[in-house]
Amino acid sequence: MLTLAAVTVACLSTTLPVQSAATAQDKKTFQLGDLDPKVDAQSVGAAFDPCSVGWDAMPPQVRSATNAKPKLRAPDKDDVFAVGCRYDNGDATVVTTEQGGTPKQGRNFIVLIVWAKPGQMKTAQSDHQGAQPAQFGSKAGLLKAGMNRASQEASCTAIMPLANGTAAISITNGRFPQVDTCVVAKSIGTAIAEKTP
Fold this sequence. Notes:
Blueprint: E1 15-18, E2 28-31, E3 71-73, E4 83-88, E5 109-116, E6 132-136, E7 139-148, E8 153-161, E9 166-173, H1 181-195
Antiparallel strand pairs: 1-2, 3-4, 4-5, 5-9, 6-7, 7-8, 8-9
């Protein structure tokens, strides 16, 4: 439904003049990134900025101790959202000192918060097998508990229609097994609902 692979989008703003042998009027200026424009909440007209939701929208038990900056997540060609942001409070990679040992990934806690344009993401319960109706403050939506197939850790997805588009939250939680992953998703969804028409 939603992928969790991290993609960092960078856009350089250096101006490069293109010289012409003719007159000064023939000089043209291009901005680096014109052919690969930056994708962020403002550039796609999102109803909210996924990167501004913040760690405070999550229960204290799962928050980043350093308030780690979330990473902008541009959509891949098959993604059903326009812009997203990835929050990561997973364990560091576990390094082994055994001869021939390989480093192992620590337990994950990854939250992907996204916004989809109107009609881009399906929001009907019938379109999401196993999803249950849920209330996010004043807004109705869906919650779907599951298991991340790659890491075999608990997961939960929340989908909430907005006046403009759809908000969705996808969480993989192996680090905080004592915390219900769908409670975290509902907390984030409610925080978005309270600030977004």
